[in-house]
Amino acid sequence: MAQDYSIVDGADVPDCTQVDYIQWTYNNGQFLAGCAYLYNYTNGDSVWKGRLDTLLSNAFQKFFTSGAEILFEPACEVTRTCNTDQQSFKGYLAEYLGYVTQMAPYTADQIFPYLANSAVAAGATCSGTVGLTMTCSLQWTEGKYDGWPRGVGPQLSVLNVLNSNLVKFANPPVTHNTGGTSPGKPDAGSTEGSTPGTITPATTGDKALAGVLTGTTAILLGLVGWLMIS
Questions:
Q1: Nearest 10 degrees: CA dihedral of 57, 61, 66, 69?
Q2: Rounded to an integer, what distance in angstroms lies between the CA atom of residue 163 and that of residue 140?
Q3: What is the pTM of this model?
Q4: Which one of 39, 204, 222, 224 is most buried, by most CB atoms within 10 A?
Q5: Domain that holds residue 130
Q6: Number of domains in the chain
Q7: Which residues lie below 8 Å from residue 155, measured CB to CB, with a gap of 6+?
């Protein structure tokens, strides 16, 4: 993390002298969420609020288009060089921003307009088809399906930004003081009256069923192998 809270991607081991200065959406989101949880845990400590506010400002400035406020991946989206993993990154930032609104509610009025604009733009790309399946594309700023790329990454990003807008209707995670723990139960998983930690021996019926399932599995694997080489 730089002094201005820019989150760079990392450094090569073992000496960590070669730093990767690329900034990705999801890295920023991870630190954002972490700061928000610590802000919540410390009951609004000013130190964590300052860090959270700076990271949030960076996210708005670097990962949302100016004016339209649409989420994008500046490191690779414009040049269409995002690999399979990178196509899903900005969806994680949207998800983390949703967490931030719950852990630091004062940020909600800032965050939700960005998430709403991004969700509308993302939904507008979901007019493509692959076979009989509807598909979405990665560049939401296009306002339409552009055919690039096709894969699970863009679909995950759209799903995450849509879900993040629904956070406002969900209760925040429970804590230790609001029901986030449960009493221990040493015999959990054992049947009533049995001794914890004991294993009931398999019956003749259990063994017969296991044999049938094993034989069926072997047949299916054989058919798959035959189809692959035929």
A1: -60
A2: 16
A3: 0.74
A4: 39
A5: 10-169
A6: 1
A7: 135, 136
